[in-house]
Amino acid sequence: MKKIINDPNLVVQDMLKGLVAAYQNSLKQVPNTTVIVRKDAPITGKVGLVSGGGSGHEPAHAGYVGQGMLDAAVCGEVFTSPTPDQVYEAIKAVNGGAGVFLVIKNYTGDVMNFEIATELAQADGIEVEQVIVNDDVAVEDSSFTTGRRGIAGTIFVHKIAGAKAQAGGSLQDVKAIAEKVVANVRSMGMALSPCTVPAAGKPSFELAENEMEVGMGIHGEPGTERKVIATADEIATELTQQVLDDMGLNSDDEVAVLVNGLGSTPEMELYIVNGKVSEILKEKGIHIHKTFVGEYMTSLEMAGCSVTLLKLDEELKELLDAESKAPAFLN
Amino acid sequence: MKLDVQQVLNWLEKTNEKIQMNKEYLTSLDRAIGDGDHGINMSRGFQEVIDKTSTTTYTSVSDLFKDVAMTLLSKVGGASGPLYGTAFLKMSMIVKNREPIDKKTLEDALESALEGILQRGKANLNDKTLVDVWTPVVDLLKDKEVIKGSELEEVSKNAMESTKERMAKKGRAAYLKERSIGHLDPGSVSSYYLFASLAEVLSEEE
Question: Which residues form the DhaL domain (chain B) (predicted)?
Fold first, then answer.
């Protein structure tokens, strides 16, 4: 393992120290927690937005804390859901009296820990609602299993629900718009190389020099198919097609595109992928309202990318275009 | 059988020893079909449990279980924290004013813990989760008038090993569908350590 760290067991604390130092004018850390909140939190009368999850996905989620997006991010250990006491602290820190809304990625641990925190907050009389993001089409959608994972599409939930809350939406308004995003966002990813959790010291899986893993999650959990590496155009086509098959878009539909790097894929390669994605969408007569290319939801130093499409209507467009002052999503 | 504070502390210490000794093994099992953090999380959580319980004086097992629950909830994370935390919290409630714990109280406590795990995790038996170990253990206690350490060890071990041939339906391994077959469920292995340690405590008493 070759990493720029001090102690593998202290990477989250050390990262947060540097993060707060970098954005000291807009972010603060709730003392003795791994919770990052807007410096001006809680904002009276505004719905507080909280997300979080395991660390290792930077800039998710602390980078999305800021006016127009999240009020707080709860940072768990690397790839490990934050604990209920931490989520509870975040809820209390952003409660401005209008209720608190939780954006949870669909992983068993995340859902359970956030639910326990919700129960604790509700016992205090704080109104709490949630949405569970499950945009990964690589995984079968079934009510008999855990269901689909939440991956890069989560960023659109942060942005749009955040804009709604910023605009003065009620807790129910924020919940409704967040559910609308979840219903209209789909993603699919692939990886070229694994990543190493600092405390584990070993890569999460192995891929031969000529192999890629399609349907990869964002924690190094195995994908759905391993095969010989293809060209960028072929990769872009496969990911985009799987997303499109699941969404059922029609020509003249409007979308936002997110080509997300998993940590060590150069922007050059992401743009090459995006070139093909945009070509495919144009061929189908689908309008691209806005494109985001870069690292939004990473998996430590994994090489690979994901493609996310969000089907838009006027309301979603307006909220997507609204101002955001979050360090990782200046808009 | 009777379990008092000292014996429960002994149970926790033995569990911690097994988890620390098998930290890498648990993580490697999780790396195969999960996200590779089970050993890391359980070792961190149980070390915290021992740090807390070895420096606190307890007059009741109920209080002790409650501290274990809160420590696991706040230090483990992932899915294991809420599941093990919920289990110990339920046990804490059941054993209150029923100490030292006799066989019937242990049976009730473990049954309540299992109910808590089922409710929190929404898993069913044979989904390849720790429920697959907890269920036969609870059944064993219900079936027997007297519980023997050797029987508990055997039942929990067999249950743990049986997860290998199952396809995961809950937890992150469920995403792998058929590819999860042939691997042990890491949560069932850590639950086996918990029950194997309890079995040792019971055997020492026999």
Answer: 6-200
